[in-house]
Amino acid sequence: MSTSTRLPDSGDTSPLPILNNAPAEDLIQTKLMEERARLEQELGVQHKEIHHFKKPVERFFAKSERQRTTILFGGLTWKHEKLVHGALEGLGYKCEAVPTPNVRAFQLGKEYGNNGQCNPTYFTVGNLVQFLQHLEEKGLTKQEIQDRYLFFTAGACGPCRFGMYEAEYRLALRNSGFDGFRVMLFQQSGGLNQAEAEAGLEMNLDFFLGILNALNMGDLINECAYLIRPYEVNAGETDRVLDEVMDFMHGVMRRKRPWLPTGTLGSVASKLGVEGATGYLGKFLEQMWDNDYLDALTEVRHRLNEIRVDRTRPKPIVKITGEFWAQTTEGDGNFNMFRFLQREGAQLIVEPIGTWINYMIHQAIQKNIDRRGLPDGKKMPRPWDLREQWHVQTNFYKKHALLKLAETIFRREYHRVQEALGGIAHGLTDQYELQRVAHPYYNSRAAGGEGHLEVAKNIYYSNKELAHMVLSLKPFGCMPSTQSDGAQSAVVAHYKDIIYLPIETSGEGEVNAHSRVQMALGEARAKAKLEFAEALKRTGFTLEQVQDYVANHEELQRPMYHVPKRKGVVGYGANFILHVADRMKGVAARASGNGHH
Ligand code: SF4
Asked: By C-alpha distance, which of 318, 321, 352, 319 is closest to 478?
């Protein structure tokens, strides 16, 4: 092979002009292109033109269209979606939640989307296509669908495939004949990509607070139902009550109107030209101290407390973890795992969306600390550049204070809802503790998907004796989950008592997945039964004696009754038996005259 860099003689003998002037550069480029073309032709090489993908310019969703345009959204549980629906309607939007994705949606996603995507992409993208196809079947033309509907979803810039969702939606829509259908993105790190003025969807403080409240309440009502259902005495009662309370809360959210400075305050603020600032402050204060939602949630608590429960049963507690969507959806996307586990007699601790919101804030705090306030792409100023140093330092402290404030307020709001619902649901897990336990196995700065959370939750829930088993739902083709899987082998090698099962969720193979879960659950069930039997033995009572006592004490048959957790005891049943026995002994001791409380 020749090493010469000389171009073959092109037949042109004219002298080359001086190199450092622009016309000469152009001439060289032209000669180069000509020569390349001649060589390609001579060697039979086909010249390929490169067409980069450019995001299509989308039709603007204008304020004037708001009354005749339905905003579609989805991807959560029906409880979250119902409350988000109420919040958006309260703000004056027409909206509709798309149904929970099923296997047919997954197949459509595969048919119209790219190859090699992660499983949630297929499910969610195909689900939108399926919904639009249903609209068409109902008689709407494609044009009408485009004019009257749009889809609103979360997006990010990666690093996992989440960054590709928007492009995937657009591709599948084009391939399925819905080219031009509007997809509006709520960026994980930036807000809506639509100009705010005259926008059909205004991303303002009311919008944020509405969604945040809906998610927090959705998380906690959902968790309460999962905690009560396994112990209900009358089959189906929890679901009946849940339907009622969700309808009630939907109405509460729908009737809620954004706070506005009115009356004297409004006119004074307007005269002083501080209407905007007063509005922000008022909304913020209302969120922090108004009791509207809390009063409604107290109603929900009373209603839930009417469900009769029997906690004198040993039930294995299964903590659900995994990838965000796979651990949240309640359908084919995770093999209907929650329903299956409950049928098998397990009690579930589902994962709230709040953990992930808290995680996002926590990661932003960490990043700010790591970079000492230095914006991306900027170099640290030299030590003697005091002005720049000062600028970077103040930027750091300002950002840190704001993020810490956001973290504190978010946790406070979450826990206010938790308290109002009787305090039986779990509080938000401390992100610093999660980081501490996971970091030796999974670098807590590695972003994407759930980051270090999958590993962290496995250790945390087992170590703190909160669950008998941890089930991780990991989508097929999920990059961060695959990384976590590698780290989990080290975790289970160090924490020998953990019953940890990762299940890869794909559109197919439900029977196989269920049978694997059944095996691990068998082990967890045995653990729960043993613990229950030991607890009973410790009390010195028979199960019948405990049950008799409970039958005579109405409050012990109510789900909102607080049972203290003992060290080393995981199951609700075992803790309940120990607690009731204490009360019985108190009664017995008082009856014999030497008891004390
Ligand atoms: S976390 Fe995994 S499943 Fe979720 S979007 Fe990213 S790659 Fe896909």
From this structure: 321
The pTM of this model reads 0.87
Both tokens of 359, joined, read: 């995680």
**Which segments of 74-226 are extended strands (E)?**
94-97, 149-155, 183-187, 191-192
Q: CB of 57 within 8 A of CB of 65?
A: no
- Choice from 125, 153, 157, 161 to test ligand 1 binding pocket (greatest atom count within 8 A of CB): 161
Around 433, how many Cα atoms within 13 Å sit in the side-chain half-sphere? 11
Residue type, 89: E
Query: What residues contact residue 230 under an 8 Å CB cut-off, 6+ apart?
Result: 315, 342, 345, 346, 347, 348
Find the 178 Cα to ligand 1 centroid distance in Å. 25
Which of 540, 528, 539, 520 is closest to 573 using CA atoms? 528
The answer to whether the CB of 424 falls within 8 A of the CB of 560 is: yes
Q: How much is the average pLDDT of 191-206? A: 69
Instruction: State both tokens at 527.
Output: 């653990």
Establish whether residue 507 lines the binding site of ligand 1, counting it when its CB lies within 6 angstroms of any ligand atom: no
**Direct distance between the N- and C-terminal alpha carbons of the chain, in angstroms, rounded to an integer:** 95
Q: How far is the CA of 118 from the centre of ligand 1 (A)?
A: 6
Over range 81-102, report the average pLDDT: 96
Q: How high is the mean pLDDT of the chain? A: 89
Q: What are the tokens at 24?
A: 């000469």
CB distance 518 to 344 below 8 Å: yes
Average the pLDDT over each of 14-18, 92-96, 165-169, 514-518 and give the range with the smallest value: 14-18
How is residue 66 annotated by DSSP?
A: G
Whether the CB-CB separation of 115 and 89 falls below 8 Å is answered with no
pLDDT band at 48 (very low <50, low <70, confident <90, very high): low
Scan for tokens 């959210």, then name that residue.
253
Take atom 5 of ligand 1 and give the residue whose Cα is closest.
162
pLDDT value of position 270: 78
Q: What residue's CA is closest to ligand 1, atom 1? A: 449
What confidence category does residue 1 fall into, taking pLDDT thresholds of 50, 70 and 90? very low
pLDDT in tens, 249-290: 999 999 998 888 888 887 888 788 887 888 888 888 888 888
Cβ–ligand 1 contact at 95 (below 6 Å): no
CA-CA distance, 427 to 36, in Å (whole number)? 67
Q: How is residue 321 written in tokens?
A: 């973890």
Instruction: With a cut of 60, say whether residue 191 has pLDDT above it.
Output: no
Contact assessment for residue 448 and residue 442, using Cβ atoms and an 8 Å cutoff: no
Taking CA atoms, 217 is separated from 249, 266, 298, 404, 429, in Å, by 9, 31, 12, 22, 17
Look at residue 96 and give its three-state secondary structure.
strand
Q: How many residues does the chain have?
A: 597
Closest among 183, 214, 200 to 68, alpha carbons compared: 200
Q: Where are the alpha helices (DSSP H) in 21-102?
A: 22-43, 78-90
Tell me which range, 60-69, 151-160, 349-358, is most confidently predicted by mean pLDDT: 349-358
Here the contacts of 563-567 (C-beta below 8 Å, separation 24 or greater) are: 563/311, 567/465
